[in-house]
């Protein structure tokens, strides 16, 4: 009989070098963001992941600075064979701090949801909590990317669904076992016109990493 097991990490910090990204477009495939993953799990075991991004004043000053929760699927027998991935978090988009969701299989599709309930530079923000959760549907499992509003004790007040990724739990054609790497990421692509600050690290603090599994 299966039961739910949970991995928890209280806090961790990531420092992203300049010219780092987690994005795939025609002619560009960059997966060199700073990452922190829990131990790999099978795709059939995954239930939910949650992470809080701690936002300090001016903590995402350059355009496309971004950080958040990342889930990467790869072939279990060949970890270098990345099949698909999804990330959700905060991103400086056009000088406004927004929620961002990216789903990638052959190429990355991105959506922005914002501005958030605080100003463009995070001056009044303290945290942003995001979630990726598997949901059972009649035609198969799907992955939902959500933004969570929490109370002072960490309980969910409101769950804002941002995007449904219908293809994430598809098995690959070769029938290989698929494992997931789940955790936090931070990246600083740094545009050419921001070269005067492009050598600075993007430092992001995270808390409340939770990964639920069905085992």
Q: What's the total helix number? A: 0
Helical content stands at under 10%
Categorize the overall geometry: globular
User: How many distinct folded domains?
Assistant: 1
Order of helices and strands: EEEEEEEEEEEEEEE
Q: Work out the radius of gyration.
A: 17 Å
The helix-and-strand class reads mainly beta
- Strand runs, count: 15
CATH topology: Jelly Rolls
Tell me the β content.
over 45%
User: What is the CATH class designation?
Assistant: Mainly Beta
Query: What is the typical, i.e. mean, pLDDT?
Result: 86
Major beta sheet summary: 7 strands, antiparallel
Based on the coordinates given, report the CATH architecture. Sandwich
Q: What are the segments in which pLDDT stays under 50 over at least 5 consecutive residues?
A: 118-123
First and last CA, distance: 8 Å
Quick overview:
This protein has strands at residues 4-16, 22-25, 28-31, 34-37, 41-42, 46-54, 66-75, 78-93, 96-104, 108-113, 127-135, 142-150, 156-165, 178-187, 202-214. It has 215 residues and is mainly beta.
Which labels suit this protein?
215 residues, single chain, Jelly Rolls, globular, 6-stranded antiparallel β-sheet, 15 strands, mainly beta, 7-stranded antiparallel β-sheet
Description:
The structure is a single chain. The chain has one domain (4-214): Jelly Rolls, CATH 2.60.120. It is built from no helices and 15 strands. The protein has 215 residues and is mainly β. Strands 4, 5, 7, 8, 9, 10 and 14 form a seven-stranded antiparallel sheet that branches. A hairpin with a 6-residue loop joins strand 11 (127-135) and strand 12.
């Amino acid at each position: 009989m299966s039961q739910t097991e949970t991995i928890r990490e209280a806090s961790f910090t990531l420092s992203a070098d300049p010219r780092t990204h987690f994005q795939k477009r025609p002619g560009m495939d960059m997966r060199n963001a700073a990452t922190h993953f829990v131990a790999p799990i099978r795709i059939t075991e995954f239930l939910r992941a949650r992470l809080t991004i701690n936002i300090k004043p001016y903590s995402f000053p350059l355009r496309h600075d971004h950080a958040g929760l990342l889930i990467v699927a790869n072939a279990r027998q060949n970890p270098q064979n990345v099949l698909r991935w999804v990330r959700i978090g905060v991103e400086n988009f056009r000088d406004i701090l927004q929620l961002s969701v990216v789903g990638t299989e052959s190429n990355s599709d991105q959506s922005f949801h914002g501005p958030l309930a605080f100003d463009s530079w995070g001056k009044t923000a303290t945290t942003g909590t995001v979630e990726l959760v598997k949901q059972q549907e009649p035609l198969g499992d799907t992955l939902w990317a959500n933004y969570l509003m929490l109370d002072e004790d960490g309980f969910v007040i409101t769950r804002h669904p941002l995007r449904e990724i219908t293809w994430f739990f598809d098995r690959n054609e070769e029938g290989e076992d698929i494992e997931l790497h789940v955790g936090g990421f931070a990246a600083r692509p740094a545009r050419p016109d921001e070269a005067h600050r492009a050598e600075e690290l993007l430092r992001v603090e995270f808390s409340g990493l939770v990964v639920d599994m069905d085992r």
